[in-house]
Amino acid sequence: MTLSRVAVIAAAVVAIAAPAFAQTTSALRGSTGLDQEGEPPPIARPVDSAARQVRNYPEQPPLIPHAVEGYEIDINVNKCLSCHARVRTGESGAPMLSVTHFMDREGQVLASVSPRRYFCTQCHVPQYGVQPPVKNDFVDIDTMLLGAKSGAAQ
Questions:
Q1: 34: pLDDT confidence band, cut at 50, 70 and 90?
Q2: Which residue, 25, 28, 45, is CA-closest to 133?
Q3: Alpha-carbon span 123 to 80, nearest angstrom
């Protein structure tokens, strides 16, 4: 392929993709130009609720329903365990860690939390009441299967 053909194809791709890119950019940046620094949005507050959030897919780690800012989680201390450890759930009312948190890679049950499950915020995140910055068309499997069944019944 000659260099001029490559240039024409590249220009066509840019011409086609530019409007979509501009829409995405404006959705994320608002009216702020690409050469300007925009005003950051205010920091959102975490949802503080005892209600459990619905999970979007099997094996999704539960969301944290409270603020965790300032929680110390390091090799010596884990603030989460002050409420969620098996021996503390009676007084705290917090849900106990899943039994999977006490298993090693071979499936052997340990007496204490497995080192690979000790750093809670590697998997669990607090829930914030914010809107996504871009449109999301995610459909969970139950909704997808329900749509397939209703379409087949017609």
A1: confident
A2: 28
A3: 13
Which is nearest to 141 in space by CA: 67, 78, 57, 75?
A: 57
Tokens representing residue 98 in the block: 């899943």
**Domain spans in the chain, listed from the N-terminal domain onward:** 1-32, 47-129
What's the pTM? 0.63
Q: Based on C-alpha coordinates, what's the Rg of the chain?
A: 24
Q: What is the pLDDT of residues 127-147, one digit of tens each?
A: 888 887 778 888 888 888 888
Sign (positive/negative) of CA torsion 69, 70, 76, 79? negative
Q: Please, where are the H alpha helices in 2-154?
A: 3-29, 81-84, 89-92, 141-153
Give the fold, CATH level 3, of 47-129: Flavocytochrome C3; Chain A, domain 2 (1.10.1130)
